[in-house]
Request: fold
Amino acid sequence: MDTKRELVDLLLEDAREDTETMARQLGRSQAEVEELLDELEAEGSILGYQAVVDWGKVDEDHVTAEVELNLELDRDTKYTQVAERIAKFDEVTALHLVSGDYDFDVTVEAESMRAVSMFVSEQIAPIPEVTQTVTHFVMKTYKNRGIEFTDRDDDDRLSVSP
Amino acid sequence: MKLSDRATSTPPSGIRRFFELAEEMDDVISLGVGEPDFSTPWKARSAAIHSLERGRTSYTTNRGMFDLRAAIAEHVTRYDLDYGAEAEILVTTGASEAVDLALRAIVDPGDAVAIQSPAYISYGPGVRFAGGDPLPVSTRPENDFVLTYDDLERAGAAEAEALMICYPNNPTGATATASELAEIAVFAREHDLTVLSDEIYAGLTYEGEHTSIATLPDMRERTVVFNGFSKAYAMTGLRLGYALGPSEAIDAMNRIHQYTMLSAPTTAQYAALEALQSCDDDVAEMRTQYDRRRRFVISRFRDMGLDCFEATGAFYAFPEAPYDDEQFAEDLLHDQGVALVPGRVFGEEGYGHLRVSYATGMAELKEALNRIETFLENR
Reply:
C-alpha cells in the first residue's frame, strides 16, 4: 500500500492524530505527511473530518430517521437533479441512491420526531418526482462508522507479563 | 509439606517482581505486557461460542482434532513447512506445553541444552524440569541479537544435545534471515544438535517473510518447530499451540502429552480451526497496527537519544537503558508511572536493555513515550 493510501487508513481510524505521530507511524517526515494531506484535500478525496457522537450520552434531544424515497422520473429529469435538491437541506445528513425496492436512502436528523415528520411531509414529500416516503425512526444505535456504542472494556491484561 | 528440590530451587521470575511493583501504583501505563491488546477475532470467538452451544465439550483425540491438524498443515505451507496432519503435528495447550513436552521427550538427565540469550523466561526452567542443564548462548547487540556460529562456538554449545532458538524473538524483537539461520544450521549439523525452534511470533514479521530453520537443508529431521495462536491471533487466554516435527519426535511428545494433558482444550481447538479458516484478514490488520506502532516507538526512542536497534518482529522494541536497566525501570515506574521490563530478566545479555512492548493502543503509547522523554529530560 502506498503512503498516501496508508495515511487515509490512519485518518479513518483517528482523524485527530497529529501529523508528527502519523509521520512516525508511516516512517516518513512530518513535511511529507503534511504535503500528502494537502494533496488528499485538494483533490477532494478527503472532504472533511467529523466526530462520531453517541447522542444518547449528550444531554440534548436528537432524533435520526432513515427515510426511503421512491421517485418517478420523466425524460428530462435525472436522479442527480432530484438528489441535489434534497441534499441541500441541513436536516439531510446522508443521501444514497440504492438498489432494491426504493430509490433514495435518506438520513434525516433533527431535534424531535415531530421535527423529522414535519420535515419529511413538508419538504421532501411535496417534491414532484417523489411518489412515496417511508420513514424509519432510529430507536437505538449499536455501531456507527466502525465504532461500537458500548461501554468501553477496561484492559484486563496483567500489567506486566512475560 | 515437603517440597521437591525441583520446585524450591527454581527462582521466581523477575517479571513477577515488576508486576507486583506496578500493581501497587495507580495510573500506570504498562509497556510491560507480553500479549496482544487486541481481542481474539470475533469469528474465532463466535466459533468457540457455537461449539459450546452444540455441547462440544468432550476430550478430543490426544493429538488434537484431525480437521485442526489438517488446517495447521495447510497453514504452515506459507512458511514452506511441509508436515503431515496424521503423524507430524501435535496440538498442545499453548506453545508452552509444546516446548515442555519437547524438552521432556528429548532431554536426558545431565544433558546440556544450549539456549539463545536473551530469550523468553521459560526455556531455562523448562530444561531444568526435564533434568537437563541450560547453557545460555549470548547473542550480541552488534549482531542485532541474531545468534551466530561464533556465539555458539564460544559458549561451548558443541557439547550440548539440543539448541533452543526463538525468532522473531521475545524480548528483543529480532528476526533472523535465511542466511543467518543457515549459520546456525551448519553448527547444528556439525555437532549433531536437535534444534527446538520457537516460532510463536512468526505471523508478526514486519520486514520480509518469516523463515523457519526447519526449511533449511537436512534440518527438518533434527528440528521441532513450535507455534500457536496466542500472538498472531490474539488468543493467549485460549491456550492453544502446536508442535511440528518428524513423527518419532511427535510420537514421543504425544506419549507424555497423553498422560499429562490428554488433549488441548476443545473449545479453543474450535476457535483455532475457525481462526485458520477465516481470520487471515484480522491477523493482517493487527500486523499493520503493530507495524505502525513499531515505527513510532523506535523513532521516538532514537530521537530521545537512546540506542534502539531496528526490531522487525514480535511486538517489542529493545532500546538500550541510559543506566542500569533494573534501576532505570524502577525509577521510571516510580517517577512517571510507566512500566517496562528490564532486559536482565531475560538473561545476562539483556543487561543494559529494556523490553518495551508496543501491544498497547496508540494513545497510551504516545503518553508513555512522552513520560519517558520527560523522565530523561529531568534526569
